[in-house]
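agent: user wants the structure for BnaAnng41160D protein from Brassica napus. delegating to structure tool.
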Amino acid sequence: MEQFPILSLPPEVQGLVVKRVVHNSFEDLFRLRATCKAMRSLADDEDVYASFDLFKYPWRLNGFRLRYLLRRCYAQGNPSTLYIKGVEYFYRRNMYVEGLDLMKRAADAGFERASYTYAMTSKLWDDDGDHFRGFLRDYVA
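agent: tool returned. relaying tokens verbatim.
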């Protein structure tokens, strides 16, 4: 089977391919980074960390790598990181306004878990039902 050299693609397309690979598998990020210097620089792009889904990350790995990953994703406005921080702030640290704001930012970015959690938390917090308009009956059931 003939191989297709990804480096022959335009840089914008290369970035899209890397984002899609990283979104599907965290292990593939490290494999991609190990292939060559060009792939490492593509994998270290800010947009890659903004599109990364932290719920696909193996949380059993602790230490520096996990802290570095969380900080980097949070700095890029990653929706799953915003959601995790929002839930932590709201339910664990009792920082209600900040936590609700982070959950809303994640929900506005299209993160489904954040949309549901934000709607339920807002319903309990301020008893406003406007957050449920975006849910279809099939989605909830």
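agent: one observation worth passing along. The radius of gyration is 18 Å.
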